[in-house]
Structures are given as structure tokens and as C-alpha cells.
Amino acid sequence: MADKGDGQVAAQVDRELTSKEAPEVARKRWIGVLARADQDATEELWAALGRTDAYTVIRGPEQGLVMVRGRAGGTGRAFNLGEMTVTRCTVRLAGGAVGHGYVCGRRPEHAERAALIDALMQLEDECQVVDAQIIGPLETVEEKRRASRSCKSAATKVDFFTMVRSE
Predict the structure, then answer these.
(1) Angle 136-154/23-36 helices, nearest 10 degrees?
(2) Rounded-to-integer distance, Cα 114 and Cα 3, Å
(3) Which terminus of the chain has fewer CB atoms gathered within 10 Å of its CB, N or C?
């Protein structure tokens, strides 16, 4: 694993720990991945999985606003940055598992698909397959995007130094 970038190693370790994690931690991870994922990429991976699970929409998809909070420098006092539009959806599989999907923006199909994937991830016999074929590839794309953004911002870094005056 030493050859890969830090982000790729972290993503791989996260995927390996899924079965060992507390259920809340694992679920937080995959819901976050689905929320940040590109809708087209999610749909492509879903189509490749070839699932046609029966489900009922319990709530939504519905759109609303959430308050985004920030911290100066990442450690300062919290402040309200502004509002952001989100779409949420809740579905129930025929077997009874309930899934929730939250995505940025006004994308009802994406929220519904995220909720369906969340419900499948809660099923013990489906979790490994869905994680390997949908969540894992979406995490890899996210890590590559994050690394690219990091490289672009690193290229603009200015190193300031102080010269000592000799007297």
C-alpha cells in the first residue's frame, strides 16, 4: 500500500474496515459518499449492478434548505455561512429495510437512488457487493477529485521567508 497516495490508502483502509466498524460509523461513511457523488456516476454504477429491487417511497423526494456553518481556519468559532438547497428521500425495501438519501441541490432522482442504496447497504447479504461495486468506486473517484484539487491549490502556494538583516 506504500506506493499509493495517502487518500487512496485511506479509502482502501476505510473499505476494509467496513465490516469491523460500528454500524453508525460505516453508515455515516457510505451516506456521505452517496451525498457527495456525481449523479451520473451513481446511475452508471447502479445500472452495472443490474438490480431491480422493489421498494416504496416513504417520504419525498422533497427539497429544502439547510444552514451551512463554517469555522475560520477550521478551528475558530462557528458562524453561519449561508443556506444550501438539499433533496432528501426515504424508501422502504420489500423486505422492510429503510434507507435515507440526502444530496446537495435539487436532484430528486439522485436522492431516491441514494436512499435505495442506503437501504441495500443495511442488508447483511447485500452489503459487501454494493460496497464493492458502488460505494468503493465512488470513494475512489472522490479521492482522485480531492487529490487533483489539492495539487491545483498546492501549485499556487507561496512560500514566504524572512531574511535576517546583518548589522
Answers:
(1) 60
(2) 32
(3) C
For the chain, the domain total comes to 1
The domain containing residue 91 runs over which residues? 6-140
**Phi, psi for 29 (deg, rounded to 5):** -60, -50
Does a structural domain hold residue 147?
A: no
Is 155 part of a structural domain of the chain? no
Calpha distance 69→142 (Å, rounded)? 22
Helices marked H in 18-66 — which ranges? Answer: 23-36, 39-49
Within-domain flag for 51: yes
- Taking the CB of residue 153, how many other CB atoms lie within 10 A of it? 9
Total-model pTM: 0.73
Q: Give the residue from 2, 15, 46 showing the smallest Cα distance to 143.
A: 15
- Grid coordinates in use for 134? 458502488
47 in any annotated domain = yes
Q: Rounded to an integer, what distance in angstroms lies between the CA atom of residue 121 and that of residue 127?
A: 4
CB-side exposure of 102: number of CA atoms within 13 Å? 12
DSSP conformation class of 101 = E
Q: How far apart are CA 126 and CA 119, in angstroms?
A: 10
Residue written as grid cell 426515504: 90
Closest CA to 8 of 118, 133, 139, 114: 139
